[in-house]
Write a structure and sequence with these properties.
The complex is a heterodimer of chains A (433) and B (250). Chain A is an alpha/beta fold and 433 residues long. In chain A, 38% of the residues lie in helices and 19% in strands. Chain A has helices at 2-21, 27-35, 39-44, 60-73, 88-96, 116-125, 141-144, 147-160, 172-175, 253-270, 276-285, 311-321, 366-375, 387-397, 409-423, and strands at 50-55, 78-80, 109-113, 130-133, 164-168, 186-192, 222-228, 233-237, 243-247, 292-298, 301-307, 327-331, 358-362, 380-384, 403-407. Chain A has a nine-stranded mixed β-sheet, sandwiched between helices. A six-stranded mixed β-sheet of chain A has the order 10-11-15-12-13-14, with helices on both faces. The longest helix of chain A is centred in the first third of the chain and has 20 residues, at 2-21. Chain B has 250 residues and is an alpha/beta fold. Chain B has one domain: Rossmann fold (3-Layer(aba) Sandwich). Chain B is 30% helix and 27% strand. Chain B is built from seven helices and 14 strands. A six-stranded mixed β-sheet of chain B has the order 2-1-3-4-14-13. Classes of the chains: A alpha/beta (433), B alpha/beta (250).
């Protein structure tokens, strides 16, 4: 315990120092973990509710934010890692702002989004009570090598989970995990209602997966399913009472399926205490996380920041936004956190941008992005690899209209930092409510 | 804005491209190679026809150029049987000078054999005289090569370590990255007009000279000649030059 206290004190100090410098979010966690490698177990294992881990390729940050809001609306005290810093050190860093030196968190639940590889690392320290597994798609193959391997990591995470798992019935890499959970672990499902199964291809990349979907579930299954009414409105059906109709503050089918997954998990966590009416009101009020369809007011005109990091995500983003006639910039970096291999851009179709064209491509691989667009015959006005110069030009030349920037992770972080400085936005890690 | 001047005038001829196993063996964007060749053929004034060959499907009636990409281990297992059904045909095409570009997993399958980590020997087509051994650690990262088509940039991501037999030409010499095995600075292999390589990127959009080399051979087989159009490759040249300079400087 003394070691934990020391570790937390050192971490708090490091956190203070990095915030003064405006630095990254993982360093304080690193400091704390070095001093007390068991810090996570010490702090999280005794929570009265439990530890919920959210993992999978796409939608972690948005879904986690929705789940946290749902639990809080039901009177639960929740600790979470809201920065999208989804490695264990990021979790520890987030903890440092909330935990007193005693190491006791003032929370009933921890709800943590974790990167697939780090989820397992985390589970080795603290066995989650609940796990929500979203999907497996091609993403950062320079880190995970193969989709099969990513699916394996999530399977092992489910094996470590002690009370309940929530699985995506429409992704066979995830749905088959139900065979691997312990005998006392409950299985909840989320997915697309068979009535609108024709929308599924918009959420998934085309590959060799075979899917039976929700239609194949036994009637006794505990399932929360997305029933789409129109482009803005949907209901989460199943498991006793429906939630909705709901209209989210974030657009698109991807946000709807994330809300469905969060609802399924809130049901699993809260059991009898879950109230559909409270859930519907709460989902309608959740603001998009930073860079996930976040809208920034730039001199009276909206600027949307859309994070893109893999083919499935970019395809969904283009399906949501692509055909709207707004000025568009695309910023592609190839740092470690972006994925160093940009080959995946060729698994995305950019034809929906053809008519409107792209004003600017930027980032370290801005020219590669321009080249990719050339092969889809999308006109590109200009390429400027320097992000600051590109942002400057983009805002200047399109000052009188709505704007959108599709960007990879580090490009998003960089651009948002610039925009935050200019337009007084909330800092990363602080909620924009 | 298209990069090419093709589109006007009558077609200079039809070129058939066969993409082998696009579902199973294209997880790293190698479909972009097919897309690049089809677009460039159009821009050069030819008519491309792309055949997607899936396991168990009949072989296309016409083929002037073959492409294959990288897949997962499970994908390789799914295509192996079909590949061996067509083994004699593929060997004959190769000997006859048909251009082929086989990336990563398909490069390995075009070799003599793959030795898995547990010592099992999986035979390959033997078109390229190379042998690949499974490794615990992967070779991952950006690559720059010197090749007969000039400097080539790409991205490698493979656990197999490949060794060329005596007399087998590599595709290129490694200037940045690991290449076949991280030891002898060779990358890929080539024989007749068959090129095997580990490079994703995808490799053809990023290296138009290599793409046009394959097209020249294919169009000559298809039509008896090669009359390239004027293509504005300035964007590709910018992307290419920046990768070369940042990787060779580092």
């Amino acid at each position: 315990m003394i070691r934990s206290t020391l570790a937390i004190a050192a971490g708090k100090l490091a956190r203070h120092a990095t915030r003064l410098r405006g630095g990254g979010s993982a360093l304080p966690g690193l400091v704390t973990e070095r001093i007390d490698p068991g810090i996570l177990a010490h702090t999280l294992a005794d929570l009265p509710g439990g530890v919920v881990v959210v993992s999978g390729t796409n939608g972690k940050t948005t879904t986690t934010k929705m789940l946290v809001a749902l639990l809080r609306a039901h009177g639960q005290r929740v600790f979470t890692n809201p920065t999208g810093s989804n490695f264990t050190r990021g979790v520890i860093s987030a903890m440092l702002s909330e935990v007193p030196l005693s190491g006791r968190l003032d929370a009933d639940w921890a709800v943590l989004e974790l990167d697939e590889a780090h989820a397992l690392h985390f589970a080795a320290a603290v066995a989650p009570t609940h796990a929500l597994l979203l999907n497996v798609a091609r993403d950062q193959l320079d880190r995970f090598a193969e989709i099969d391997q990513t699916a394996q990591l999530l399977t092992r995470l489910a094996e470590q989970t002690t009370t309940g798992v929530v699985l995506n019935v429409d992704d066979s890499f995830i749905s088959r995990i139900h065979r691997s959970v312990g005998p006392d672990v409950s299985v909840g499902w989320f997915g697309v209602d068979p009535a609108c199964a024709d929308r599924l291809p918009e959420l998934q990349e085309a590959d060799v997966r075979e899917v039976d979907g929700a239609a194949a579930l036994p009637v006794t299954a505990d399932a929360s399913l997305l029933l789409v009414h129109d482009e803005r409105s949907f209901t989460v059906t199943g498991s006793g009472a429906d939630v909705g109709p709901v209209t989210l503050r974030q657009r698109g089918l991807a946000a709807m399926i994330n809300a469905t997954a969060a609802t399924a998990t809130a049901r699993a966590v809260l059991g009898e205490r879950f109230e559909p009416g409270v859930a519907a009101t709460t989902l309608a009020s959740v603001t998009p996380p930073f860079g996930r369809g976040e809208v920034i007011d730039v001199d009276g005109q909206p600027l949307e920041l859309v994070l893109v990091k893999n083919p499935a995500g970019f395809t969904v983003a283009l399906g949501t936004y692509g055909s709207e006639p707004v000025a568009t910039m695309i910023a592609i970096n190839d740092n470690y956190a972006d994925g160093r291999d940009v080959s995946w851009l060729y698994d995305v179709s950019f034809e929906s941008l053809r008519e409107q064209g792209v004003a600017l491509t930027s980032g370290v691989r801005g020219w590669d992005m321009a080249l990719r667009l050339q092969y889809d015959e999308v006109p590109v006005e200009r390429t400027e690899t320097d992000l600051d110069a590109a942002l400057e030009q983009f805002l200047h030349e399109h000052a009188d209209g709505p704007k959108r920037i599709f960007c990879t992770y580090t490009a998003m972080m960089h651009l948002r930092r610039r925009l935050a400085a200019r337009y007084g936005l909330a800092r990363f890690g602080e909620d924009a409510q | 804005m298209t990069a090419g001047t093709g589109g006007g005038g009558p077609s200079k001829g039809t070129v058939h491209i066969v993409h082998l196993y696009p579902r199973e063996m294209s997880i790293y964007g190698d479909l972009g190679n097919t897309r690049a060749l089809a677009s460039r053929l159009r821009w050069h004034g030819y008519t491309p026809v792309v055949h997607q060959h899936h396991p168990g499907a009949p072989w296309p009636e016409h083929a002037h150029l073959l492409l294959g990409g990288g897949g997962q281990d499970s994908g390789q297992v799914r295509v192996q049987e079909d590949l061996f059904t067509h083994a004699d045909r593929l060997r004959a095409y190769a000997a006859d000078g048909m251009p082929m570009l086989m990336i990563c997993g398909m490069y390995q399958l075009f070799g003599q054999a793959f030795l898995t980590v547990d010592g099992t020997r999986l035979p390959g087509l033997g078109i390229l005289d190379v042998t690949t051994t499974g490794n615990a650690t992967r070779m991952i990262g950006p690559v720059v090569l010197d090749t007969l088509a000039g400097e080539v940039v790409g991205y490698e991501n493979h656990s197999g370590s490949t060794v060329l037999a005596a007399g087998q030409e590599p595709f290129g010499t490694v200037r940045h990255g690991q290449g076949n095995n991280g030891a002898d600075r060779t990358e890929g292999a080539r024989v007749h007009e068959v090129i095997g390589s580990y490079l994703h990127g995808p490799v053809l959009p990023a290296n138009p000279a290599l793409a046009d080399h394959l097209l020249r051979v294919a169009a000559t087989r298809a039509t008896g000649g090669w009359e390239p159009g004027e293509i504005d490759d300035s964007v590709a040249e910018q992307a290419h030059a920046r990768q070369v300079s940042r990787l060779l400087a580092g």
